[in-house]
Amino acid sequence: MSNQPDLVPIRAPKQTRPTVQRSPLSRLIDAVGSISFGVTMMVLILAYCWIGSAGFTPLTDWFVRQSFEKTEMEWFNWWPFHVLLILFSISLILVTWRRIRFNRFNLGVWTVHSGILVLILGAVVYFGTKVEGDMAVYRRQAILRSGGAEARLLLRPGESTSLSAGSRRYEISVSTLNPGYELLTGEDQGKQTFAAQLLVRPFEDGEPQRPFIRQLLAGYPKYTEDVLPGQGRAVKLVGQPLVDQQLEAELAYAPSDRIFLRESMALHVREEGATEWTELPLKGLPRYHEYVSEGRDVMVMPGETLDRLRRLNLEPRVKHDTEPFDDSLRFRVTGFLPFARSASVWRPGGQAFNPYAKLSIRIGEEMISRELLANDPENSSFSLGDDLLTVGFEWVTDPSKLEDYLRPKQPRVRVEIASRTTEYPLAQVMEAEVAVEGTDYRLKGIELYPRWNLASTGETASMALIEVAGPRGTFRRAVLAPFTELSQDIGEQGMQHGGLIDENIRIELIDVPETGLLVIGGPVGLHGLLTSAGGEVIHRALVTGQPASFVGGSLELTVETISETARRERIPVIVPKRERDMKAGPSYSMVQVEVTRGEWSERHWVEYSHYAHPSIIGFFPQPVTLPDGRRIELLYSRETREMPTAVALEAFRLETYPGQMRERDYISLVRFRQDDGWSGVEEIRSNQPTSHDGWWFFQSTWDPPRPQLGHAGLNYTGLGVGNRNGVLIMLLGSAMTVLGTLYAFYLKPVLIKRHRDAARRSEPLASPTEEERPAAAALGSKGAVARMGESS
Amino acid sequence: MRTSRVVVRAIIPTALAVLTLSAVPSGHLFAEDSWELSVGRSFAQQVDLDSIRVVAVQDGGRVKTFDSLARERLKYVWGARMLRETDPVLLYLDMMLIPQHYAGRPVIEIHKPAVRHKIVQMIRSETAAAERHGVITEPELDRIAETGRVSLMFLDHPVVQAVLQQLERDLMGVGKEIDKLSGARTLADSRTLRAMLTAVAPPGGSELDPWLPIDRVASGGMPKDQVHAGLRAEASGVPGIDSALARTIAGAWDQLEQAWRFQDAPAANAALSQLAESLPLVEPALYPSSSRLGWEHWYYSRNKLTRTWILYFLAVPFLLMAVVYGFRWARITGLSLFVIAAALHTLAIGLRWYLAGRIPNANMFEAITASAWLGVVVALVMEIVLRRWPVKNLPALAASLTAMIALMVHNFFPIRLSSDITTVAPLLDRTVWLYIHTNMIIASYALIFCAAITAGFYLIVWAAHSLVASPKLATIWTGGGAEALAGGGAASIILGRGLEPGEARNSGLARTLDGATMIFLELAFVTLWAGTILGAVWADVSWGRPWGWDPKEVFALNTWLVFLVLLHVRLKVKEKGFWTAVLAVVGCLVMLFNWIAVNFVIVGLHSYA
Fold first, then answer.
1. How large is the angle between the packed helices B309-325 and B12-23, nearest 10 degrees?
2. Interface confidence (ipTM) of the complex
3. Which of its termini does chain A have fewer beta carbons within 10 Å around, N or C?
4. Is B599 part of any domain?
5. Which residue of B has its CA nearest to A749?
6. Number of domains chain B contains
7. Is A43 in Cβ contact with B565 (below 8 Å)?
8. Which structural domain, as residue segments, surrounds residue B131?
9. Is B452 in the same domain as B559?
10. Does the distance separating the beta carbons of A54 and B602 come in below 8 Å?
């Protein structure tokens, strides 16, 4: 950084005679120590910064940093940037040392250049040692004791625990939490405090006893009391504040001494039911792009495609100072999705009888692929083209049933009048009016609906709308098959409710075919049947994976997979790029973890959990059953780091603007653990962090109320925690650059002017002295020196 | 004598004309067919809304006038441009009291053509032609695609609802706009308008307690629907309110509703006047002073004095003539206009500061107007300090153009650069860093813009001089000397070389422009760098880290790097003036990229944190 007067070569590099051969090192030093090289470095640093932040915007939408799977912090802590900074620093040192004389005129530029070097040094220290994370510190936990047993219950919605003491057992859960409970009695009336109501279900020898609610108030143990649901306070009902004296409960701080690092992910593993996790840091985990080894591992939304299949192969290991989880188990991360949500799908396999088929159907140019389950009414069939074609799947074990399906149908209309029955082909009735022999009735088919959904039962039936002319006049009868008893008449007044207009005539549909395409699997073999409304059946024996044509090739059916068993699996659905909230960070990411023991291995997708403990933000441990029946849990979250001191939340306050609708400030009152207990209360709020043991604690997130869930919120505070090594060095360097710039721009010309004026007064006709030369040179040219003399 | 004649002839008439123009209240005229209000023209002209306009309401975390509420909220329904043509208070009351009139009318504006075309296209693809009836007929869809105005009935149609739900998920595309549309739909509902009219201060409450809607007093908490029509709760819906006062307010409110329905202007006026008198009495301790409410109404109705850009605009040609030809009369006229504009600009900033109760630099509109104002202040100081140097007039010229553009921007993007007075995020509230860091940064932005103007001026004349072989132009351009100053801007002034007083004629425009650019750039360089460092100090105490390589931070660094390159390139190249000008313009573009693209695009879409 400099101004024109500063960088004029005051002490020019030594001129070498042409006859002397200069060494390559000298030439290199000359090149690196030139202004051109320095400017080139500045331009490269600028370009690196631009690309890292905005990619090639506004030229293209290629975001280079994301292509390298690097966060901003990682991009600017990467070796190419370090190389640029080192070269720039070397150039800066050489230029300053070789070209700018150290005197009072050039003090500014020297300060600026030194400041930049100090700033870079500070940045190296700062970013090289930077640790940053956050922790959720809850207000309180309940400590529960009975008969020597103890349990702890963290006070957040949905939390529960159990406590056993001899023959007595308690199941205790958090009922309600009130961050602003107002005391109603005694000298503390009107004060507000945090209140927890715990639902206690006692059991004696396994027999449930009367449940009760225990209310605990932070800071007021004397007001602890029980309430019997639906009846009132125990003190009024049983004459004493506690229903169950054997259960002791008190509130205590819920300190936290572990932070979750900001950008470092980790796989956490534990035995099911254990409280502690073993942590395996995920070094090199991608952040922005999908890594999927097999297309079937994920689901892609219609119209979307997976860019490419590529496998991830990370073998996370525990930190060197940590005990391994289980030497016989190996964990590998084989897939990563930056944006996905979990969906439930059926997969062939498993133990349960659940016939499954995956079909592909081509109609004209259109290709449809679907999965069907024969035993699931909701998933055993589907319709194409506004119900034009129904496709079903049935599992048939009885060969006679298959024969029944294959038999061409002869749909008929059976008419019964006064015990006399007559049958007519349905096609005849639909084509023209039919006079029923020996009666005054005439029938005419109006419309046939092969698949009619019954609004009352949800079942599917065949329905024919037949116009009936007879002694009771002309009306229409909706004849349902096989539910003839549900048939209804439609007269001039509309639908006849609760009966028929003419009960003397009974009309039935016989042998009405189930039209559409039916895939039959099972012991009877694999078959495809296309049945028309007229009862004709086109039959194809099918082979898995081979297409079968119907109707001259305009319809093609392929059974891709068929299985007698199927199991439900959760599978990630990739969120389309357009629907991604890029501010969400890793919140919607998933990793695929392969767990291996000897020959056995299983792969599971694990969703991201913000903390390795339950929180409102989400907690998704993935259970895995090992071959020996042991169950473990996998959790994909962040790497943690232990803090030297635990921090507890005394209280959390929210300030609002007028109207109490907008937050104005978040205030955490915290205490730090000390040898003799807890420190005094320290206040953390926006723009007001607190420092402890070299770490800064600042307000990061909070627990907002969720009225829709009945949560009053404010149960915890989210504290950001970070170290600050090198900050003062950076500040010193920055201050030097600012002061040096001010000196160079605004003070140096004044000094030069004074010096020049003084020189004029003392030696009006003298040539510029050595001391004057900078001033003369600062005027910009050899001519300036001459003019100075002239003007004198 | 001559000067006073110039003042009388040139400045006063111009200033008066512009002041008159600036003072015309916006949104105060009622056009006969403007928005097809339910009420007739005569009622609209006779109804006196002046008293109700300055009634206080609590909204968005502050107490404002009803007029401000109507302007701020209804622009998201009708669109800012449309709203300027009618009286927002009249429209608010009409939409609230006669909702059935608006159900089928195209009241909501979908501003972006791409969004409305997408909605129409989706409706067409989701429905068969035969199913398009009612509010989604073909001609109606064509009209919506063209005008972008839709009715509440249209938005409530099941097909449209399904389409909007699909589009809402398109976060990278139209999702945000669909969110806004849903917000506008809610706002246009008369129940929302009633609920937002929180003009009843809580009796015995504190300034933090929520104010209550007038409806609560009038109905005693009964819903305003057909089922409860004519019913009134025994007790008032506002605890602690004086019962006689509650009856008065309830009576006036009922009377207003009746009068509005029957278009009885005298009765409506009486009711409005009664309301305006009674509402401050509910809790006088919490009610703002009438002068504060009056100033707020004045400020809002004068479009936040953004029309001051006209004065800056008028100053430009005079200052330009003063720079190129050195006309003294042009300098006096231009500077006078500039000073008047600066005074109005200062009044706007000061008034906003008073009304907001905080420094007005916290949102985009405020940052832009405050940035320009800081540039103007620096230019005024420069004009005083450098009044004998050839660079005089250039600071005023550059600052006039900067402020003119800044104040005009609000007119072009009234929704995105909302000029509403708002509360600020907790991080920005009650912190001294907002005064230090933000002001230094926005001041540097104004100076960078000023430098780009003088640099752009340099490049234009340089191009003309290079292309046209005109001796006269050559004389103006170089004056027989170099095309750039040898040293820096401030150094040249202090050392008295190249920009000496009295050298205007023979120093050449090139060196004058180059000098002015360098003076601006040096100031910008220091303020930008110091402001960035102080921003890092602020980040350290608020986020626990001074520097996180956030795009905003990186582009502040990038802007500074461009000027760092400029200062060093100037040492090396022969065409110092040309390259200085080019890099000054490049630096300005990077600064604008940081202010616009990084704020609205990069951070929103590509930030991992």
1. 150
2. 0.89
3. C
4. yes
5. B491
6. 3
7. yes
8. 108-187
9. yes
10. yes
